[in-house]
Each structure stands twice: as structure tokens, then as C-alpha cells.
Write a structure and sequence with these properties.
With about 270 residues, the chain is an alpha/beta fold. About 55% of the residues lie in helices and about 10% in strands. Helix 3 (about 55-65) links the parallel strand 2 (about 45-50) and strand 3 (about 70-75). The radius of gyration is 21 Å and the shape is globular.
Length: about 270
């Protein structure tokens, strides 16, 4: 995999006494699943995947207590796990099965219980360097016209792929239009901002990736602040950072977060 040299070195040192319960945290497309597979291969364990539903979590827990052979139980994208399923996992952190290792991946550590966080070993993926991201762009055969956008907003190779799922000029034009016209009271109806975003995990839903769009908007607000020295643009950038934080929290309504951001950013730009 590209990058993650420090994390791979840390994992290598942990192998002799690897923890029974691990959380891998990183942006979408950052390689969390690849790291989990790497750990299982290094430990010589079979990997059994399980989902985030409460029945599936309970079933896998029961299975883990009945197996004599060491197994790694892996739950990818555990951000969407229900409260009931998370509470069921507490049994594992309190009384880990002798021959079981559990690995979860999360985009945000805030998407699990604090009790689980405190009892788990948390491995955080590093953001990729700009050089690594541009090398990946070349490897994927994407054009070089948008390297400045990649440098400004992408933190993982998966996000580079996500960016190029869009018509990038239209994506960037939309972000610029928001920054330059969001303060106009009727502009929300013109932009239809929430309807232009992919706010659910439904693969059939179309729209711009909200994380990438709001990172772009934040960058553009910062550039306007540098150009004009007007504090309102710095405030708008800070409000956008708060929006980005909340978009990564599974229990927070993404539609509500975007609507709140529209009101807050208009307030600071008045």
C-alpha cells in the first residue's frame, strides 16, 4: 500500500503481544481495510467479517467464545453500528475470548462509545503526503489539471478516486459559486445545496461528496480572507470546519448539519 510507513512499523513492534480489541481510524479510502488485512496476515489468522447490525454482532460474539482456533473478527465501516450493537461489543472488551481478535474500522473515533474507545487500542492512519497523492493520481491515470485541488482537499487515495467520480470543473465551480453568493438570501434556493450533495450511504444516490465539497469551500474562504483581510471570511472558514466535524459523526443528521451551516455562514458573512 502507499504510505503509512510509521503505522506499519508500529504494528510490526506490536505483533508479539497484539491486543485483542483494536480500532483503526482514518478517512474514507485511506486504507483501513488493507491495514486490518495486513495485521491478520502478519498474525497468521483467518479473517471473519461481520456487519454492524445487532443480531450479527451478537452472533459473532457467541461464535468467538466457541472457537478453539485463533480467529480475527473484522467489522469494516463500524461508524454505522447501532447503539445496541455497540453495547453488545462491551462484553468483548470486558471478557475477551481467549482465541479471538476483534478489529473495527471507523472514519471518526467519535462514532463509537467512549467506553469502547478507552478499552481498545486505537491505530490512527496518517494523512497521505501531497507527493503520495499525486503519485497515486499518476498511477490511476487521472489528468494533472486538478493537482492543486488534490493538494488542497484530499487526505487519502480513496478521496482522489472520489474526486474524479465527479466532473471536477463543475465540482469546483459549484464550490466557488457557494463562496461568492451564499450570503445572498435567495441563493440557497438557487443552489439547492443539500440536494446537490450525496448525504446518505446509498450507492445509487448522486451528488457531490460533502466532505470534499466543504473542504474546498473552507479553502476558498481562507483564500478570500488572505486576499481581502476581512475577518468574516476567516469566520466562515471556521464555521465550515465545524460543519466538516459534524458530518463525520454518524449520530448527527447530515441534512440538519448542512442546513445549520447555511444559516451560520450567512450570519457571519452579513
Amino acid at each position: 500500500m502507499i504510505g503509512q510507513t510509521k503505522l506499519l512499523g508500529k504494528i510490526e513492534k506490536m505483533l508479539s503481544t497484539f491486543p485483542k480489541f483494536t480500532i483503526i481510524v482514518g478517512a474514507k479510502g485511506s486504507g483501513k481495510k488493507t491495514i486490518a488485512t495486513h495485521i491478520c496476515n502478519k498474525l497468521g489468522l483467518m479473517m471473519v467479517n461481520f456487519g454492524t447490525g445487532i443480531d450479527e454482532v451478537r452472533n459473532i460474539i457467541d461464535l468467538s467464545y466457541s472457537q478453539d482456533k485463533p480467529i480475527c473478527y473484522f467489522c469494516p465501516d463500524a461508524d454505522s453500528m447501532s447503539i445496541g450493537a455497540k453495547n453488545s461489543l462491551l462484553k468483548i472488551t470486558e471478557e475477551p475470548p481467549q482465541n479471538a481478535y476483534f478489529i473495527l474500522t471507523l472514519q471518526s473515533i467519535n462514532n463509537t462509545l467512549e467506553t469502547i474507545q478507552s478499552r481498545a487500542t486505537v491505530l490512527a492512519l496518517d494523512n497521505y503526503t501531497q507527493e503520495e497523492l499525486l503519485n497515486y493520481r499518476v498511477k490511476r491515470g487521472y489528468g494533472s489539471s486538478f493537482d492543486s485541488i488534490i493538494k488542497d482537499i484530499c487526505v487519502s487515495t480513496g478521496e482522489v478516486d472520489e474526486l474524479f467520480k465527479n466532473d471536477v470543473p463543475s465540482f469546483y465551480k459549484f464550490a466557488n459559486t457557494i463562496v461568492n453568493q451564499i450570503h445572498i438570501p435567495t441563493s440557497g434556493n438557487i443552489f439547492k445545496i443539500p440536494k446537490s450533495l450525496k448525504l446518505s450511504t446509498n450507492e445509487k444516490e448522486v451528488g457531490f461528496n460533502p466532505t470534499l465539497l466543504f473542504r474546498t469551500v473552507r479553502t476558498l474562504f481562507l483564500k478570500k480572507y488572505i486576499e481581502t483581510k476581512q475577518p468574516k471570511y476567516l469566520l466562515a472558514s471556521n464555521v465550515t470546519s465545524e460543519c466538516l466535524r459534524d458530518l463525520n459523526i454518524q449520530t448527527v443528521s447530515k441534512l440538519g448539519t448542512v442546513d445549520k451551516w447555511i444559516m451560520d455562514v450567512r450570519r457571519v458573512l452579513r
